[in-house]
């Protein structure tokens, strides 16, 4: 079975150390985390964590079971095979001159990105979309000179009525 990127979503308690325990578990099992994003969920005092890691389905299922045992984890799912929506946010600071600024703006426009900061020698672009879109925009802006870039990593949710949230049965552990 070949290794592939998996998207794992966990609902966790908003408590100090939860992120560290999750990351340590992946490290101990020899998994490299490609990206990890954490933010508040629709439920007070719970956060949704999206982790992207590479492994076989069997390996990822084993680590999912281990993550589920962490006391502050309410629920964890590998949603890779589900019908999901994924997004990533990137801020890209690009060298810009009076001569090339309009060309940069055209590229940004094509990708439905936004220019969020302008200075005499640069523009900062905000891009949202799937990883391929962000990669493509980056590659087109690279010849102008990338000064800095930061990316959030993947966030994901199942489409439609599917949910990954705490239910009445899954009360406090």
UniProtKB/TrEMBL annotation:
<dbReference type="Pfam" id="PF10369">
    <property type="entry name" value="ALS_ss_C"/>
</dbReference>
<comment type="subunit">
    <text>Dimer of large and small chains.</text>
</comment>
<dbReference type="InterPro" id="IPR054480">
    <property type="entry name" value="AHAS_small-like_ACT"/>
</dbReference>
<dbReference type="InterPro" id="IPR002912">
    <property type="entry name" value="ACT_dom"/>
</dbReference>
<keyword id="KW-0808">Transferase</keyword>
<keyword id="KW-0028">Amino-acid biosynthesis</keyword>
<dbReference type="InterPro" id="IPR027271">
    <property type="entry name" value="Acetolactate_synth/TF_NikR_C"/>
</dbReference>
<dbReference type="InterPro" id="IPR045865">
    <property type="entry name" value="ACT-like_dom_sf"/>
</dbReference>
<feature type="domain" description="ACT">
    <location>
        <begin position="7"/>
        <end position="81"/>
    </location>
</feature>
<dbReference type="InterPro" id="IPR019455">
    <property type="entry name" value="Acetolactate_synth_ssu_C"/>
</dbReference>
<comment type="function">
    <text>Catalyzes the conversion of 2 pyruvate molecules into acetolactate in the first common step of the biosynthetic pathway of the branched-amino acids such as leucine, isoleucine, and valine.</text>
</comment>
<comment type="similarity">
    <text>Belongs to the acetolactate synthase small subunit family.</text>
</comment>
<dbReference type="Pfam" id="PF22629">
    <property type="entry name" value="ACT_AHAS_ss"/>
</dbReference>
<dbReference type="GO" id="GO:0003984">
    <property type="term" value="F:acetolactate synthase activity"/>
</dbReference>
<protein>
    <recommendedName>
        <fullName>Acetolactate synthase small subunit</fullName>
        <ecNumber>2.2.1.6</ecNumber>
    </recommendedName>
</protein>
<dbReference type="InterPro" id="IPR004789">
    <property type="entry name" value="Acetalactate_synth_ssu"/>
</dbReference>
<keyword id="KW-0100">Branched-chain amino acid biosynthesis</keyword>
<dbReference type="InterPro" id="IPR039557">
    <property type="entry name" value="AHAS_ACT"/>
</dbReference>
<comment type="pathway">
    <text>Amino-acid biosynthesis; L-isoleucine biosynthesis; L-isoleucine from 2-oxobutanoate: step 1/4.</text>
</comment>
<comment type="pathway">
    <text>Amino-acid biosynthesis; L-valine biosynthesis; L-valine from pyruvate: step 1/4.</text>
</comment>
């Amino acid at each position: 079975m070949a290794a592939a990127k998996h998207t794992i979503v966990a609902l966790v308690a908003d408590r100090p150390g939860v992120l560290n325990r999750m990351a340590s578990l992946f490290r101990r099992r020899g998994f490299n985390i490609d990206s990890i994003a954490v933010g508040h969920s629709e439920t007070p005092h719970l956060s949704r964590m999206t982790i992207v890691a590479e492994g076989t389905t069997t390996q990822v299922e084993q680590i999912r079971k281990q993550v589920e045992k962490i006391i502050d984890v309410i629920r964890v799912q590998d949603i890779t095979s589900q019908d999901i929506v994924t997004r990533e946010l990137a801020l890209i600071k690009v060298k810009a001159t009076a001569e090339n600024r309009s060309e940069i703006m055209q590229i940004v426009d094509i990708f439905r990105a936004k220019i969020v900061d302008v200075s005499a020698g640069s523009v900062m672009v905000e891009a949202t979309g799937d990883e391929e879109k962000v990669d493509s925009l980056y590659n087109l802006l690279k010849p102008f000179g990338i000064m800095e870039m930061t990316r959030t990593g993947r966030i994901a949710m199942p489409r439609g009525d599917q949910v990954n949230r705490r239910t009445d049965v899954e009360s406090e552990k």
